[in-house]
Amino acid sequence: MRASAKGFEDLVVWQKAHQFVLAVYRLSRTFPRSEIYGLSSQFRRAAVSIAANIAEGFKKRSKADKLRFYNIAQGSIEESRYYLILVRDLEYGDVSELNRLIEEVSKLLESYSQVVRNSENKEVRI
After folding, report:
1. Structural domain includes residue 59
2. Measured distance CA(26)–CA(83) in Å, rounded
3. 117 neighbors 67 (Cβ within 8 angstroms)
């Protein structure tokens, strides 16, 4: 059994989401200059939203509040999946590692959300 996380940084799902953000920033630096205010900005915003909503949800006490933030993060995962398709189709870079990371984050977040959903208390501390 794992010890309870003291902060969001202790969550494996957040750590993987943060790795995804860093990878998105590295990749988007190589995009054409014309994408600075377009795809680069949108992709970065969506990626950051995943990790940020996991972090914000961590501190929420009620099950409903936690799940709301985790659901927003899940929406940002799907938005990021589209940007990965677009990057691939525009031939802006290799997205294979990013696809692997986003899949891992998605599965971890779904599992983590399931634990929250199945918890007995309305107030959850994990």
Report:
1. yes
2. 15
3. yes
pTM of the model: 0.91
* pLDDT tens digit at each of 126 positions of the chain: 455 788 999 999 999 999 999 999 999 999 999 999 999 999 999 999 999 999 999 999 899 999 999 999 999 999 999 999 999 999 999 999 999 999 999 999 999 999 999 987 655 555
What CATH number did the domain enclosing 41 receive?
1.20.1440.60
Place of tokens 């972090």: 55
Whether residue 25 is contained in a domain is answered as: yes
Looking at the 3D structure of the chain, how many domains does it have? 1
Q: Is 60 helix (H, G, I), strand (E, B) or coil?
A: coil
Which residues, listed in sequence order, are joined to residue 62 by a DSSP beta bridge? Answer: 123
Domain residue limits at 34: 10-114
